[in-house]
Give the backbone structure.
Amino acid sequence: MRRPLVAGNWKLHKTIAEAVALADELKEGIADVTDVDIVVAPVFTALAAVGKALEGSSIALAGQNCYPEAKGAFTGEVSPSLLKDAGCRYVIVGHSERRRIFTESDAFINLKVKAVTAEGLNAILCVGETLEERNDEKTFDILTDQIKNGLQGISAEMMRQVIIAYEPVWAIGTGRNATPAQAQEVHCFLRRLLGEICGANTADQLRILYGGSVKADNADELLSQRDIDGALVGGASLRAADFLPIVRHRLK
Ligand code: PEP
C-alpha cells in the first residue's frame, strides 16, 4: 500500500512572516491527520523559519530546487546538503518552470536527482508534456524520455527516495486540470515504464503524484484513481483554507 503524499509548492511567494503564518495554520489544521505525508516547499529564504514553525508537526520541508554540486564557485545556487542543513527532507527537481524558464535539460535534472538522493533526501522528480506535445500525440514519448534520462544511473535502492510528479504543463496554473481518466492513463503508463526501469516491485512501491490545478473540489476525484498517490499543488497551497481540504480529502 502506498502512503499518500500531498505537497505544496509555494513557488516565488510569501515573505518569511507570511510563510511562517501559513505554516502555523497548516500545523494546526493537520494535527489529527496521520495517514498522509504532507510536504511544503517555501522559498529558500523562509526555509529555516518555516522549519522551526513546523517543529512538532508531521509536515516535512522541501526545497523547490537545488544545484547538484555540494559546494564551490556557483553563485546563487543551493546544494542538497545545505537544504538538509536548513531542515529539508525533500527537494523538487525538474519542475516544468525550471525546464522552460531556466532551460534545464534532462541530463542536468538527472545530476540533481543523484545529488539529492546521495544526500539522503527524497527527490520529487517532475515530468509532463506541453499542450502541443499532447495534441501531437507525443505525450508518452516525451514522458519516456524525461523518466529514462532523468533517472539514468539511479539504482533500485536509490529509487526508494524518488517520488514522481506527473504535471502536464498545460494544467499548471491554468485552472484546467487533467481529467481523472487522463491522469490515471498517464500514471498507469508511468508505473509500467518505471517497472521496466527498476523492476515491478519497486515501481509498485513508488509514489506518483499528480500536479496541475489541483483544488479542493477536484482532489477527491483525481486522488482516488488507482495509480495516483497524492498531489503536487501550486496555487491552492498558498492558503490554508484551500490546501487543508486537499490534504484532508478522503484518500484511498
Ligand atoms: C505546480 O506548480 O507544481 C502546480 C501544480 O501548480 P498549480 O497547482 O497552480 O497548477
Observations:
- Strands lie at 5-9, 37-41, 60-63, 88-93, 122-127, 162-166, 208-211, 230-233.
